[in-house]
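Troubleshooting log. The previous structure file for this entry was overwritten by mistake, so regenerating from the original sequence record. Sequence copied from the archived sheet and checked twice against the printout by T.R.
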Amino acid sequence: MKAKGLFLILILVGLIRAWWVFTSEVSPQDAYYWMCSQRLSGAFFDGPAGTALLLRAFGDDLAAARLFWVVMGFLASWAAWLFLRRIADERIAAWAVILLNAIPAFHFSSIEVGPLMPALLLSLSGLVLARVAWEGKRTAWLGSGLLFAAAVCFRYEAILIPLGLLGAAAASRRHRSDGPWLVGILLLCAAALWPAMAWNASLEWIPVAGGTLRSAWEFHPTRILGGVERLALDFSPPVLLLIAGGLVLLLRRAQMHARAAFLAAVSVPLWVLCALFVYSGSAPLSAAWLGFVPVAGFATASVIGSRPGRWAISLCILLAVAFSWVGMRRHGWEAVAREALLAARDLPAAEQAGFFIADEPELAAVLGYHMPHSPGPPAVFVPESPALVNQFGIWASYADFVDSPVVLNEYFTEQRGVNPYVGRNAVYIGSELPQTISAAFSEVVPLKTIAEPDGRTLGIYLCIGYETLPL
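Regenerated output below.
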């Protein structure tokens, strides 16, 4: 396929995605990153702060931001084509790029705000320049290093790409002179990650650790099967099988062919990390996402030469498109938020404004986005919990005490903190009423039940007179 034909296909796909953006509601993921953009910090529970910083440039205009993600999807596709064309040829690159656009993970990352698409665009652009430098024009390492440093501001795993290149350079007598350049790139990436590392260190590395080392290394077959299932849903089962076969073949060819060795250097470390994530029960997509294009290009090159191989690739593309269509996000989140906001009108009149509590972070993010925008963060929270498992556990909560010089109790003069939410009313929305809600309010009244877009039944409760949880 010629470049012009691929360009027209990508334009058509981009227009379809833009139409979907204009006709669909804001998703929970969109709303969550919008909330992050309103509360900037060195990093967030699920990764660096790059996505929030980029969204901040769009303000409250999430429609424009989502359209920009569609544009990044087009640019990432073109960067993948440029990279694979330099490694192989135009035909192989075109087939691999079409396969990339067919997988569900790429489609949803093109129409929903998140860190995966900018990380992929920057990583692939960095790989294009890295390949130019690898072929002898060493000044290209400067641009490549800047792009890799920008990529790690969206996903930590992107640092494994220059690290793999450094290993390949150290193992090759011809490319050892590239080592100092790659060390400089790694130092640049480390500098870009410094705010995120300082933020994680302040929280004792809980966001990136994800549990104890002992629990991470315990063997759980169901946990492994769950990780494989998530990858199959993200890439579609036939594409995942193609990638698995391509990865095995790439490891065998890397010892004999220089181009295969280059592809292995920039992808195998990411797939090893993906395997560790699957084993430990963590989300494996981000590592597999950044390592997909090199392996997909090699797998495509291995089978595209024969007619059965082309039929197999075509079938993978069609099935991946089918999986993307089946997984299209349902409408209805705006209606859920509207019902919760209407319920707030039934709260008893009070001097201080009420607030909202949702049982899950995704629902809380949707409520926060659809609330009337005012100065300061939206007054929407998740139920208080001693466990730190998401970003809402880091942000200020209705259960937090703030310093105050006022002594509230003459018998407890050491306590000088006050809770500004004591006495306020709230609306709780969730599938069940937890004890942390029923015990923290003087009265909880069920109001109505509604259906979430994914089929879950939600109850809306009026919570009167917050008193904090008893000790």
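The mean pLDDT is 89. Archived copy saved in two places this time.
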